[in-house]
Design brief:
Elements (H helix, E strand, L loop, with lengths): L4 H31 L13 H4 L2 H25 L9 H33 L12 H25 L1 H11 L14 H5 L2 H11 L3 H19 L6 H5 L4 H10 L3 H7 L21 H6 L22 H6 L16 E3 L17 E3 L2
Antiparallel strand pairs: 1-2
Length: 355
């Protein structure tokens, strides 16, 4: 489906800005190298002394710590009744499947990509970036990984054909750890920045990737949680300067919950923006961010039919049998601008049933 000319123009402009942003860490590393007369005084294999103690902590978090962290937060959410008894039926099934399946499927996929495919594609490039200082590798991966994910996420909202591959994540009528990994299988498999980061690790940036990955996971867990840890920053005036920086730099519960709202008519919801994952600054730069320091009253998609878990997880391989569902057989998405003879059945995108 064709995009409107205005949308195409905006995308071209923002993609051009993104290309410039992608070059910034590369330019910084190059200048560092030149200012040191081509002498490499350190590499990413050597951590700054103030971070050395944190290496085993981050390593353990990556292997078993983060899942435990998620489970603990989930227990707190359930104990506090923050799901309002909504985690039932198909909601429970799709959340559990989406949490477990990638942990079984992804390791062999990434292993094949990293150990078999990359050496074939780039046979003489293994560890060629091992000379890059830690801060340079961290900066490079943080930008490359998260900006790429911003675009992956944004395009799945703005390109009608892609929307239903991401729709599953927005179908949850609640926020919390339970729905954090709730995604369509195809959306997850083609998660572009995962392969980009794996490539950078192959090139020799494993240690910076570890630190970026763990920090990003903590931020994303916090942003999706129903525990609004950012509220004290808005409540107490002395913390307002910190809040101003924090909410523009990283995703917080307030900004990300707004992205999952089921409406934008209340001035709080912003499902057509607030795309940032680790960094919210991308939304600031591209004008897709909305900061209100308030939380939506309701979440999800108003046209949600509680589709079968297999349809949500494996669409379009399996279709929904629910009448009127956007995941049913014969439903085609069309651009928002084409409103003629169209019914708004979804708060994020217009869809039309073809007879």
């Amino acid at each position: 489906m064709a995009l409107s000319s205005k949308t195409q123009k905006t995308l071209k402009r923002d993609l051009s800005i993104s290309l410039l942003i992608y070059t910034l860490p590369v330019l910084a590393i190059y200048l560092y190298f030149k200012l040191n007369n081509g002498i490499v005084s350190e590499s990413h294999l050597t951590l700054p002394s103030f971070l050395e103690f944190a290496k085993p902590v981050f390593a353990n978090l990556q292997t078993w710590g983060l899942p435990v962290f998620m489970i603990v937060i989930g227990i707190i959410e359930f104990a506090a009744g923050l799901y309002d008894d909504e985690w039932t039926g198909e909601e429970r099934k799709i959340d559990i499947v989406s949490f477990l399946a990638p942990k079984l499927i992804f390791p062999p996929v990434i292993a094949f990509f990293s150990l078999t495919l990359l050496p074939v594609l780039f046979p003489n490039f293994a560890n060629t970036l091992s000379w890059v200082p830690f801060w340079g590798g961290f900066f490079l991966i943080a930008v490359a990984d998260d900006l790429t994910q911003y675009w992956y996420h944004r395009l799945h909202h703005q390109v009608p054909f892609l929307w239903r591959f991401h729709r599953t994540h927005h179908s949850a009528p609640y926020m919390g750890i339970a729905m954090l990994n709730r995604q369509n299988f195809i959306y997850t498999v083609f998660f572009s920045q995962i392969y980009l980061t794996a490539t950078l690790v192959y090139l020799g940036l494993g240690l910076p990737a570890l630190f970026v990955g763990v920090l990003k996971s903590i931020i994303i867990i916090g942003a999706h949680s129903s525990i609004a840890w950012d509220k004290p920053f808005y409540k107490y005036k002395v913390l307002h300067p910190i809040a101003w920086v924090l909410e523009r730099l990283i995703s917080t519960p307030a900004t990300h919950h707004a992205h999952h709202a089921d409406t934008s008519g209340d001035g709080i919801g912003n499902f057509k923006g607030n795309f940032g994952n680790m960094f919210f600054i991308w939304d600031i730069i591209f004008g897709t961010g909305l900061i209100t320091r308030k939380f939506p009253k309701s979440y999800g998609i108003r046209s949600y039919k509680q589709e079968e878990w297999y349809a949500q997880f494996l669409w379009p391989i399996f279709k929904s049998k629910k009448e009127g569902s956007a995941l049913a057989e014969g439903v085609l998405s069309i651009p928002v601008s084409q409103k003629k003879e169209t019914v708004l059945v979804d708060s994020n995108v217009y869809e039309q049933v073809q007879s």
